[in-house]
């Protein structure tokens, strides 16, 4: 193991700082991708949507960098258990962010398809839902950077709002599809978009739980994750 | 760093063997969960479906164990870069398997809802699709255990079949919904079930790429991941 000279200690701190800053960058990009995807959806701008699809590769590349750096830090610095747990937490968070990026990309793909369909009414609720979700992603990254358990807890609590948005959208889209068969294809895209946002909310909550745990050593008491519409037996259920 | 005595070397091998065997266990459980969820769907057995939902906690617990063990191995054995990369790959695979478990759980939730609805015709294609996906999960874990790049490659190639299943199901479900508004709620569940299966196929493919890379040092040339229905502008598209 390397001697714990101040030079080595400083370098380790530099390394971990660089790793955390890569993850912040990923988080910032994810937040922007969600906002841009929904913006393209609202403005019915297929070109802007396809730009979001293309930008996802940058998030994937950052994840690759973060993983490489994490392995390098572990190999060169042989960190103690506490530091190791932090590095592993960083790896997990970067993989969650990569997945959030994928959801934003999928939203953008659907936005490009919806730009060609007639606008549908339940869509007005989607930007609202997206705004809450994008703020969750922003806040959980701020909580990660500042090691702020209170903010992490607030992110977890906001997940219920997202689930409520999703349930309400799910039911109104189903009703909307029943009214007119022409609504079915665009409504299906919107349903998947809402589902993607709901999943992003879940992932932000998972990260918030990790941040809270690593800052306090305490688990946030679990609330059932996911929406309850998976059990729905009718649009009115 | 610990001396490379034969005792230490053996212990490291034991540790990594234990980690890989935890991941095999997770893989076996995931495969069983997919099969059981679809079986509950086909037999319209809500009770069996809820058993699948409950069993998911075992996969989550195994992931926790795998992570703990991985951190312990790194902290105690201070492995060299190649071994470290293997441990990090194990961590990534276990997190993918945890997610596959979540998808199976979500299928089971929807199966329990569908057990109360009238059976719908496009459902016959779902067990076929699920069979392909479950075999992909089984094969990718076998490829992982045997470090078999050929089998990993075969898994990747089968993902196209899954995507074709999904596209075909997507279009027939949309047509089916258009025919009769009463089909909409159950068709929506089936659409999400098919989407979950398609995502499991993607995840199995991701793992197969990791297995192939770690066995050969070569990347499998990328094919576009995900289904093309995200771009669909009508059921006939």
Automatic annotation (TrEMBL), chains A, B:
Keywords recorded for this protein, A-Z: Cytoplasm, Phosphate transport, Transport
Protein's GO biological process: intracellular phosphate ion homeostasis; negative regulation of phosphate metabolic process; phosphate ion transport
A single GO cellular-component term on record: cytoplasm
Domain PhoU: from-to ranges: 23-110, 127-211
Glycosyltransferase is among the record's keywords: no
Record field: transmembrane: none
Coarse class of the protein's main subcellular location: cytoplasm
Location of this chain's protein in the cell: Cytoplasm
Function: Plays a role in the regulation of phosphate uptake.
UniProt similarity note: Belongs to the PhoU family.
Name under which the protein is recorded: Phosphate-specific transport system accessory protein PhoU
Taxonomic source organism: Glacieibacterium frigidum
Gene from which this protein is expressed: phoU
């Amino acid at each position: 193991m390397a001697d714990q000279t101040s030079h080595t200690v400083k370098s380790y701190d530099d390394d971990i700082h660089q790793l955390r800053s890569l993850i912040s960058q990923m988080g910032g990009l994810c937040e922007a991708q969600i906002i841009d995807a929904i913006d393209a959806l609202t403005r019915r701008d297929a070109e802007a949507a396809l730009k979001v699809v293309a930008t996802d590769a940058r998030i994937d590349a950052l994840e690759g960098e973060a993983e490489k750096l994490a392995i390098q830090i572990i190999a060169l610095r042989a960190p103690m258990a506490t530091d190791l747990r932090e590095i592993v937490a960083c790896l997990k968070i970067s993989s969650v962010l990569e997945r959030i990026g994928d959801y934003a990309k999928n939203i953008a793909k659907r936005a490009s398809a919806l730009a060609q369909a007639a606008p549908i009414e339940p869509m007005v609720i989607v930007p609202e839902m997206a705004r809450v979700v994008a703020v969750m992603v922003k806040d959980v990254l701020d909580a990660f950077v500042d090691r702020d358990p209170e903010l992490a807890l607030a992110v977890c609590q906001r997940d219920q709002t997202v689930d409520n948005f999703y349930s309400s959208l799910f039911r109104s889209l189903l009703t909307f599809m029943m009214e007119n068969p022409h609504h079915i294809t665009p409504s299906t895209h919107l349903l998947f978009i809402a589902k993607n946002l709901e999943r992003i909310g879940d992932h932000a909550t998972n990260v918030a739980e990790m941040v809270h745990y690593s800052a306090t050593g305490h688990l946030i008491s679990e609330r059932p994750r996911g929406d309850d519409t998976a059990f729905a037996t009718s649009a009115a259920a």
